[in-house]
Write a structure and sequence with these properties.
Elements: E1 2-8, H1 24-34, E2 38-42, H2 52-58, E3 62-67, H3 70-73, H4 84-102, E4 108-110, H5 123-143, E5 148-150, H6 164-173, E6 179-184, H7 185-191, H8 195-202, E7 206-210, H9 226-235, E8 241-244, H10 252-266
Parallel strand pairs: 1-2, 1-8, 2-3, 3-4, 4-5, 5-6, 6-7, 7-8
Helix pairs in contact: 4-5, 8-9
The structure holds L-Erythrulose (LER) and manganese (II) ion (MN).
L-Erythrulose (LER) binds at residues 67, 69, 111-112, 151, 153, 157, 184, 210, 245.
Length: 267
């Protein structure tokens, strides 16, 4: 398992659960000095990131993934919007992020952009739109040599799918095998009965992990027991990233150092 940490470039997400908020150069330098293998970036658009390749090389970092969430947070695009034009725009946005991430050999994440039902759609319609999207974008990502990550979110952020088991059911109903689950421990802490068991049951479908504590602070600064979670990830032969998608509390460097310390103790 490898370590990663989040950098947000989205002004509207300053208060969001991302560790670094002061640009790519600052985030990459601090990620490397804390000892991370990779960064995960929350981008404001799919415009090129001209400094990224040089910064990754300079700091010997990989890109773990790029989040599409600003498609929702900034542009109000949802993949389950009742309006077909807006849905098409949302799909184009995710394609743009898939293309951008693939340039750095990394996948894109669908989290907040999944939207919710009841705002111009019935529940069944929203679920069908989400499945249609994943069926279209899974193969699109595969052409670029990348998986596509789908993230179940807690009930306060979506009413579509909240648990890993529900996520597995969706993935298994698709015509593509290229969509993998993002297991975010914060959402799981709210929704799962048993986090390690949920990971064991999801097995090969787990493609990425947002590694955080019960309160969205760094792993080690809440009341979650990460040891059995890591044991479950080992049991499913998980070799992906443990990515700190956490609040920079009490400050970004403490958040980073605490995450690395927890990973070193347990992995
Ligand atoms: C938001 O709660 C979250 O977990 C993100 O990864 C989704 O965009
Ligand atoms: Mn997450």
């Amino acid at each position: 398992m490898k370590s990663a940490i989040t950098i947000s470039l989205v002004e509207e997400a300053r208060k969001g659960p991302f560790v670094y908020h002061d640009g790519l150069a600052d985030g990459c330098a601090r990620a490397a000095s804390a000892g991370f293998d990779a960064v995960e970036i929350f981008v404001p658009s799919f415009d090129p990131l001209p400094e990224l390749a040089g910064l990754l090389q300079k700091h010997n970092l990989n890109l773990a993934a790029i989040g599409t969430g600003a498609g929702w947070v900034k542009h109000k695009l949802s993949l389950t919007d009742g309006d077909a034009d807006k849905r098409a725009k949302a799909i184009e946005y995710v394609k743009g992020v898939i293309d951008l991430a693939a340039q750095y050999d990394a996948p894109a994440i669908i989290g907040s952009m999944q939207g919710r039902s009841g705002e111009g759609t019935t529940h069944d319609e929203a679920i069908q739109f989400l499945k249609d999207t994943l069926n279209a974008l899974g193969p699109y990502a595969k052409e670029k040599g990348q998986p596509l990550f789908y993230e179940p979110l807690n009930r306060y952020e979506t009413n579509l799918f909240n648990t890993l088991a529900e996520g597995v059911e969706v993935l298994e109903s698709l015509t593509t095998d290229n969509v993998k689950l993002l297991a975010d421990l914060f959402h799981m802490n709210i929704e799962e009965a048993d986090l390690p068991q949920a990971i064991r049951d999801a097995g090969k479908h787990v493609g990425h992990v947002h590694f955080v504590d019960s309160n969205r602070r760094a792993a080690g600064l809440g009341h979650m027991d990460h040891r059995p979670i890591i044991e479950a990830l080992k049991a499913i032969d998980y070799e992906g990233y443990l990515c700190a998608e956490a609040f920079p509390l009490p400050d970004a460097d403490t958040c980073a150092n605490t995450t690395i310390k927890t990973i070193k103790q347990l992995v």
